[in-house]
From TrEMBL:
Short name of any one Pfam family annotated for the protein: Mannitol_dh
Coiled coil: none
Domain Mannitol dehydrogenase C-terminal stretches: 293-486
Species the sequence originates in: Mesorhizobium argentiipisi
Domain Mannitol dehydrogenase N-terminal, first and last residues per copy: 38-284
Higher taxonomy: Bacteria, Pseudomonadati, Pseudomonadota, Alphaproteobacteria, Hyphomicrobiales
SUPFAM superfamilies reported in the protein's UniProt record: 6-phosphogluconate dehydrogenase C-terminal domain-like, NAD(P)-binding Rossmann-fold domains
Protein name: Mannitol dehydrogenase family protein
Length: 515
């Protein structure tokens, strides 16, 4: 690949440039001018552009149909100046250590900014052309209670939307209003497909939309029952936040400017519950898998890959590492996470068709060593209170129910606590954190100080995260107290080394006795 930095002023990516891109940049293999919209996507961030939009681009090249994407943001950032200016075109870079592979994706036909008012989003979502609505709105976007999955009726946006249903602000409110408009105008069926990293995401999406609709009246709730599908899905590809280096790479290596570059690893996976209303985008023709039950795939990914990411993020920050790949390069932390997954997590999994669990662990860990994927530990640590239930606490509950050891899985749970505790004033504000429960944990830390048992007692009482029956379990409490004590000590990595040194079930009996 030649270095094209000599160009006087690089041209911006747009339809006019497509025919003149360098040969090493892959281009859409279909006539974009003939593309009509059929899918709307809410939450047009890096992950969607690196995942579902790429699968759709593949599908259009293989089996051209009315599956153009309309991208909608109802939260910042604005799209008009980045993707909008480029007519929805953007570059997807695959980075594997030193290799870079570029491709321009063409599946997004239009972008819609709907941050100030829901009206532009509702126009798209209520259109008879739209037969599938996909979304990546993060865990928080569903306005649900993490420990139960129910709609949070006290959420300020939900309170507002129930009082002002025609000008909604929340995702459940926007979707319910769009469905009401569809019912009133053309009554065409629609599939609402969550692509967020939440277990049973289709069930949770269905719960929050139905619960909202029921408060609008029986007629809408009945129409949704008959005309709307909420399949669950499991999505997988690591796509860190784009940096200036990534944008400069495109200009330097390929000679054009792109303000909407996204970066991902080579691996990708999409498992979708085969439950659609109306026409189906045949993503299964281009690498996605349609299945009757997504649950085994969800457990595998959440508990193994995401469990590893969460564990490495907290222990990595405590150990002084900036990125996942640097944390994985530390022999102690790599050994710890491999043992945790192999000895404690894998036995909690149900069989997954076509996947060998031990091989999946190895592949997941090798993905996390990719030096070109600069995923910051603090970025992965964000919103941990919304993530640890499915990634760590559920496997812990499964093991306790069978009387099995949890010495290793307890460490990252205490890691999440230590991470938030050390951000408090009393602990010197070691770093800034972003988590819905950050203030609550900081207040506990400021009040209690270094007494690990008292800290754990107060944090386990937060029942939106910790199911009361788990919080009351003596073995669980003893392990969390011991782990928090070790991680808040002057030598947190020494403590991780100790846990890793012994046979963990023997440690279980000993620490349960000493507690």
């Amino acid at each position: 690949m030649g270095d094209r930095s000599q160009s006087v002023s690089a041209e911006n990516l747009g339809p006019a440039l497509l025919g003149r891109l360098p040969s090493e940049v892959r281009k859409p293999a279909y006539d974009r001018a003939a593309l009509k919209p059929g899918i709307a996507h809410i939450g047009l961030g890096a992950f969607h552009r690196c995942h579902q939009a790429e699968y759709t681009d593949d599908l259009l090249a293989k089996d051209f149909d009315r599956w153009g994407l309309v991208g909608i943001n109802i939260r910042p950032p604005l799209l008009v100046d980045t993707l909008g200016r480029q007519d929805g075109l953007y570059t997807r870079l695959i980075r594997q250590n030193d290799e870079v592979e570029a491709r321009v994706i063409g599946s997004i036909v239009r972008v819609v900014d709907s941050q100030d008012s829901a009206a532009p989003a509702l126009d798209v979502l209520a259109s008879p052309d739209i037969e599938t609505v996909t979304m990546t709105v993060t865990e928080k976007g569903y306005c649900h209670i993490p420990s139960s999955g129910a709609l949070d009726l006290d959420h300020p946006d939900i309170v507002y939307d129930l009082a002002n249903p025609e000008t909604p602000r929340s995702v459940p409110g926007v979707l319910a209003r769009a469905l009401e408009l569809r019912m009133a105008t053309h009554s065409r069926p629609v599939t609402l497909l969550s692509c967020d990293n939440i277990q049973t995401n289709g069930i949770i999406l269905g719960n929050v939309v139905r619960a909202f609709a029921e408060r609008r009246g029986r007629k809408l709730a009945d129409w949704i029952e008959a005309n709307v599908a909420f399949p669950s899905a499991m999505v997988d590809r690591i796509a860190p936040a784009t940096t200036k280096v990534d944008i400069d790479t495109v200009e330097r290596r390929f000679g054009y400017r792109d303000g909407a570059v996204v970066v991902g690893e080579r691996f990708r996976q999409w498992v979708i519950e085969n439950r659609f209303a109306g026409r189906v985008p045949r993503w299964d023709l281009v690498g996605a898998t349609f299945v009757d039950d997504v649950t085994p795939f969800e457990h595998l990914k959440m508990r193994v890959l995401n469990g590893a990411q969460t564990t490495l993020s907290y222990l990595g920050v405590l150990g002084g590492f900036e990125h996942t790949f640097e944390t994985m390069a530390d022999p102690l932390l790599a050994r710890f996470v491999r043992r945790m997954l192999t000895e404690e997590t894998l036995p909690t999994l149900m069989p997954v068709p076509g996947i060998a669990p031990a091989a999946y662990v190895e592949r997941s860990l090798s993905r996390l060593t990719n030096t070109a994927i600069r995923h910051r530990n603090h970025q992965i640590a964000t919103d941990g209170s919304q993530k640890i239930v499915q990634r760590l606490l559920n496997p812990i509950r499964d093991r306790l129910a069978k009387g099995e050891g949890i010495a290793l899985l307890s460490v990252p749970v205490a890691g999440w606590m230590a991470y938030l505790i050390k951000a408090s004033a009393r602990f010197g504000r070691a770093w800034q954190v972003s988590d819905p429960f950050a203030d609550k944990i900081a207040a506990i830390a400021d009040r209690i100080g270094t007494d690990s048992k008292a800290l754990v007692d107060s944090i386990l009482a937060v029942d939106a995260i910790f199911d009361p029956s788990l919080a009351a379990n003596a073995t669980f409490r003893a392990h969390i107290i011991a782990a928090l004590d070790g991680l808040l000590s002057n030598d947190p990595m020494g403590f991780v080394g100790q846990v890793c040194a012994g046979p963990t079930d023997a440690r279980l009996k000993q620490s349960a006795r000493s507690a």
